[in-house]
Amino acid sequence: MSVLVTGGAGYIGSHMVHALVESGESVLVLDNLSTGFKWAIPKAVELVVGETGDEALVTRLIAEREVSAIIHFAASIVVPDSISDPLGYYRNNTVNSRALIECAVRGGVKQFIFSSTAAVYGNPAKVPVSEDDAVVPMSPYGSSKLMTEIMLRDAGVAHGLDYVILRYFNVAGADPDLRTGQSTKGATHLIKVAVETALGKRAKMAVFGTDYPTPDGTCIRDYIHVADLVRAHADALAYLRAGGRSATLNCGYGHGFSVLEVIDTAKRVSGVDFRVDRVGRRPGDPAQVVAQSDRARELLGWKPQCDDLATIVAHALAWERKLGTLENW
Ligand code: UFG
Fold first, then answer.
1. 3 Cα–ligand 1 center, Å
2. What is the pTM of this model?
3. Index of the ligand 1 atom closest to the CA of residue 219
């Protein structure tokens, strides 16, 4: 029995692969290496370079490696890119996922865990936002993920495929042992940008908008440590294997920080007072996105262990330093 991890060479997927190997699972990675890195996964893990939409390949892998569970990370994840290339996003995130789900059903896969996103909520009418609140994506990225949620739910009902859909909030940080981390080039995510600036990889950074209806005028997000997010996946797999019912769950801590709070933390943790410019709003940014997260805790027994912004930033910073020393990056 193996666990197939799509996108396992990417940021979150590679953390998952290390955790699965540590817990003694047999793991197989399918990744097209468009944004992932072979070195991000343990040497002993087999990496198949290919597409999740390649039905012949996936069918063969499921049969040959006796895949009983799929954890599906592989996706395009840049919101502005999805606006300029919606059809590319629907192909990679929705069409390829449809093929993967069909292969899973045909191949008798028992459990399916899917990486969804808080982007399915769009600009939430209230925070914290619950799984039962309206889903109104504001980008093709969010829509592409929501469509996969719908396909998975329908396939689950029709074919008995058990699934957990995890809606990620703002994922950040890195493996505390620094085996992997966020390695994307040209990243746009706040914590990554802040630690890059602290290390002098960027001369300065910008705060996008200081006139939001929040206490300090900057946007609030629920930042979750990647290690806790991986824990939620491991808990979801154990839950499904124990006969748990399919579920859709938020993955956030349930409290948020403003952009200025994050930047202050990055300055404090790094000890560097880097340059920060206050500029206009970035189009499409909701003022506040914070998870209601009790359902994942109750249903899966999920117990976050890194719910501390300074720890998240410290691990992101340590990984950023290490990244500067890697030859094959
Ligand atoms: N921000 C800055 N300066 C920067 C980068 C970001 O001020 O250099 C601000 C943004 O304007 C936003 C906040 O920091 O207010 C967080 O921005 P990120 O880009 O880090 O993250 P987002 O909240 O925009 O995106 C996250 C996920 C997406 C998901 C989206 C849905 O990373 O995958 O939430 O809400 F689609």
1. 31
2. 0.97
3. 15
Q: 113 and 95 share a domain?
A: yes
pLDDT (tens digit per residue) in 40-81: 999 999 999 999 999 999 999 999 999 999 999 999 999 999
CA of 87 to the centre of ligand 1 (A): 22
282 Cβ inside 6 Å of ligand 1: yes
Instruction: Pick the residue whose CA is nearest to atom 14 on ligand 1.
Output: 190
Q: Which residue owns the Cα nearest ligand 1 atom 5? A: 190
Instruction: Give distance in angstroms: CA of 131 to centre of ligand 1.
Output: 20
The enclosing domain of 231 has a CATH number of 3.40.50.720
Tell which atom from ligand 1 comes closest to the C-alpha of 189: 20
Residue at 179 is within a domain: no
Domain co-membership, 93 together with 204: no
Which CA distances in Å does 269 have to 238, 309, 326?
35, 10, 23
pLDDT of residue 150: 98
Same domain, residue pair 136 and 210: no
Q: Which two tokens stand for residue 49?
A: 């370079």
Are residues 96 and 233 both part of a single domain? yes
Q: Is 285 in the pocket of ligand 1 (CB under 6 A)?
A: yes
Length of the chain, in residues: 329
CA-nearest residue for atom 29, ligand 1, is 119
169 and 259 in a single domain? The answer is: no
Q: Is the CB of 205 under 6 A from ligand 1?
A: yes
In the numeric block, the tokens 């620094």 are attached to 178
C-alpha angle 164/170/175, rounded to 5°?
85
Q: Beta strand 170-172 with 257-258: parallel, antiparallel or unpaired?
A: unpaired
Instruction: Please state the domain count of the chain.
Output: 2
Q: Name the residues annotated as catalytic.
A: 141
Q: What is the pLDDT of residues 256-295, one digit of tens each?
A: 999 999 999 999 999 999 999 999 999 889 999 999 999 9
| Mean pLDDT value of segment 190-210 | 98
State whether 6 and 140 are in the same domain: yes
Q: What pLDDT is stored for residue 184 in this prediction?
A: 87
Atom of ligand 1 nearest to the CA of 141: 36
Has residue 182 been placed in a domain? Answer: no
Which candidate, 18, 33, 325, places its Cα nearest to that of 176? Answer: 18
37 vs 21, 85, 233, 257, CA distance in Å? Answer: 17, 24, 21, 31
